[in-house]
UniProtKB/TrEMBL annotation:
PANTHER family reported for this sequence: N-ACETYL-D-GLUCOSAMINE KINASE
SUPFAM superfamilies linked: Actin-like ATPase domain
GO MF entries: kinase activity
Organism for this UniProt entry: Actinoplanes couchii
Gene3D superfamilies: 3.30.420.40
A Pfam family recorded for this sequence: BcrAD_BadFG
Protein name: N-acetylglucosamine kinase
ATPase BadF/BadG/BcrA/BcrD type domain location: 3-335
InterPro entries for the chain: ATPase_BadF, ATPase_NBD, Euk-type_GlcNAc_Kinase
């Protein structure tokens, strides 16, 4: 049997499968991106491995492929070391290979060796493959320096618009109430983490403080709220967002999509800009005519304006519907099978793994 692991920024997934593609075990754990997850990478990988191997004899594992975001370039050796620690701690002795999240995502979408991956989840990038090898990539530089069109990128632009609406620099938007509701539910951070002193409530961290401002309702436009309430709401959002790992900010992106579907002008512009950035990134990896295109990541695989507009743009460019990569761990398992058998994974095996 083989193991495939897709260690993402927010979730780590593991698949155990036979060499004919039959999945016999699955496990999940928290994110394992050293740049944005805020955790020790090997711990998340080991947790996913342990869950997937609960009823499986570890001696039957011939090989494994572990892929991760943030594991290329300067992060390659650090991820390889973390993966090795997790592999040994899980009691595994089979051959271990490490790759980036690009290889596992592309392998999850197609058994073909040539094509282009367009990914927009927590991060965002495009990558062109030839003969199974990465030929060129664009973006994927992380939440601070790139990832244009990603969930985090969308959320950060929306939060900037919300703060601008609250202090009067920007136009009113339904994203104000959406942000207060979302980060009240996701925040709930103790005052010690938000920088408060013992006995104090951190501004806006408990849900009742963020949503139920004194004498005010969270509803209504910013212009209907007093300046003090708007400032309190802004500070509440700042406290909640700075208290969480950057990767978790992407959880606000679905609310931005929902607002765009309801014709909120600010959300519509953010989603349109995200679409343009993603297609621009795709164009710059030099996709050959008729190339297989694989889509990956929550932004592109969840129904919404960005997914819809990107698909339309790709169809206009390539003349074919893109394929989808919904299980990166299965893609990693496909790569592991290929290592064991010494041959490309058959279409029927790939379909069995990824169905």
């Amino acid at each position: 049997m083989v193991i495939g692991v897709d260690a993402g920024a927010t979730t780590t997934r593991c698949v155990v499968a036979t060499v004919d593609g039959t999945v016999v075990g699955r496990g999940t754990a928290g994110g394992a991106n050293r740049n944005s997850s805020g955790v020790e990478v090997s711990a998340s990988i080991e947790a996913a491995l342990t869950e997937a191997l609960r009823r499986i004899d570890r001696a039957t594992i011939a090989a494994g492929v572990l892929g991760a975001a943030g594991s290329s370039g300067a992060g390659r050796e650090a991820f390889r070391a973390a993966a090795g620690r997790a592999w040994r701690s899980a009691g595994l002795t089979g051959e271990l290979g490490t790759v980036t999240d690009l290889e596992v995502a592309f392998a999850a979408g197609t058994p073909e060796p040539d094509g282009v991956l367009l990914l927009a989840g927590t991060g965002a990038l495009a990558a062109r493959f030839a003969a199974g090898a990465l030929e060129q990539r664009c973006d994927g530089y992380g939440w601070l320096l790139g990832d244009e069109g990603s969930a985090v990128w969308i959320a950060v632009r929306a939060l900037r618009a919300v703060l601008a609406a609250l202090d009067g620099r920007g136009e009113p938007t339904s994203l104000v109430d959406a942000a207060i509701a979302h980060f009240a539910a996701a925040g709930g951070t103790p005052e010690e983490k938000a920088g408060g002193t013992p006995g104090e409530k951190a501004v806006g961290t408990p849900a009742e403080k963020v949503v139920g401002m004194p004498g005010e309702k969270a509803g209504g436009t910013p212009g209907e709220k007093t300046g003090g309430v708007r400032e309190e709401m802004a500070q509440a959002l700042i406290a909640a967002t700075f208290a969480m790992p950057p990767a978790r900010l992407g959880g606000f992106a679905p609310a931005v999509s929902a607002a765009a579907e309801q014709d909120d002008a600010v959300a519509v512009r953010i989603c349109a800009t995200a679409t343009g950035r993603l297609l621009h990134t795709f164009d710059h990896v030099g996709p050959p005519p008729g190339a297989v295109v694989v889509l990956a990541g929550s932004v592109l695989l969840t129904p919404g304006p960005v997914a819809r507009q990107v698909r339309a743009g790709l169809l206009a460019r390539t003349g074919a519907e893109p394929r989808t990569a919904r299980d990166g761990a299965a893609g990693a398992a496909a790569l592991a099978i290929s290592r064991v058998t010494g041959a490309p994974v058959a279409s029927v095996t790939h379909a069995r793994l990824t169905r």
